[in-house]
Amino acid sequence: MTSEITMVVNPVAGQGRGARAAQPAAAALRDAGFAVRTVVGHDADDALTRAHAAVESDTGALIAVGGDGMASLALQAVAGTGVPLGVVAVGTGNDFARATGLPVRDPAEAGRRIAAALKDGTGRDIDLGRVADRWFGSVLASGFDSRVNDRGNRMRWPTGKSRYDLAMLAELATLRAVPYRLTLDEGEPVELAATLVAVGNGPSYGGGMRMCSDARMDDGLFDITVVGECSRATLLRVFPRVYRGSHLSHPAVTVHRARTVTLEAPDTTGYADGEPVGALPLTARSVPAAVRVLAAE
């Protein structure tokens, strides 16, 4: 493996933590003997172009500095290429880093662990999901949570997390189950009414919501969590349990496991790792060992 690696930075992640985190992470890598080339994208498209260029130039590793959005962007460049991925997680949610055993908001320690994995030739091979032309590491969301995202993305005020809190309240006011058609692997389609359906390659999204709490990232299978028809009162009562993963025992919740899943529902957008991938119907497939993450095995 070449000793030159590439660090892609989101300078605005975590209210500027991305830019501040790059220096101690890079210092830890240089102290371990690696040459670090840092690139900063002007926007997401530019950052992705630069990440692809680094991978195509046979960089020894791609290191994403930022939050889940930057980790997801890096996955688009490294998936299926053999180039390992490191993540210096300094965003708000950091679900991907937590799921893969990487330190959160400790850039120097993240740099040291990445360097150790590179030197030892170790790491963790994990599965990724693929829907349309997009890879995802955590969760493909649809239903109530994707409608919250839709509404939040349309709002110009307020800014930050409070925008999505307000969007959630607005969606709760009009809560309704949606008719879904769900096809798992080669099985027959099943029609059901659901408040939401989440396809988990990893266990959590949205900053620690363990919607697919039992999902493993190395078993070649998705955990598909279906929240059936429920009232606003029930959703509000059960929602806090999502952060512990204990909602899976509620009678309104069912979990399926499959290698591929097709979701069909009217007027519903799918979001993969928080990014919109298009209106349903969508088909997602699990791709085993699609990327090596520089983390503890």
TrEMBL record:
Per the UniProt entry, what is one GO biological process? phospholipid biosynthetic process
Q: Keyword annotations for this protein?
A: ATP-binding, Kinase, Lipid biosynthesis, Lipid metabolism, Magnesium, Metal-binding, Nucleotide-binding, Phospholipid biosynthesis, Phospholipid metabolism, Transferase
* Annotated signal peptide: none
- Which Pfam families does the record cross-reference, listed alphabetically? DAGK_cat, YegS_C
> What GO CC annotations are associated with the protein?
plasma membrane
Requisite cofactors: Mg(2+)
Asked if Magnesium is a keyword of the record, the answer is yes
Domain DAGKc: residue ranges: 1-135
Source species, domain of life: Bacteria
Please name the InterPro entries in this protein's record: ATP-NAD_kinase_N (IPR017438), Diacylglycerol/lipid_kinase (IPR005218), Diacylglycerol_kinase_cat_dom (IPR001206), Lipid_Phosphate_FormReg (IPR050187), NAD/diacylglycerol_kinase_sf (IPR016064), YegS/DAGK_C (IPR045540)
Q: Which SUPFAM superfamilies match?
A: NAD kinase/diacylglycerol kinase-like
Q: Which GO terms describe its molecular function?
A: ATP binding; ATP-dependent diacylglycerol kinase activity; metal ion binding
- What is the similarity comment for this entry? Belongs to the diacylglycerol/lipid kinase family.
What is the name of this protein? Sphingosine kinase
Query: Source species, please?
Result: Streptomyces oceani
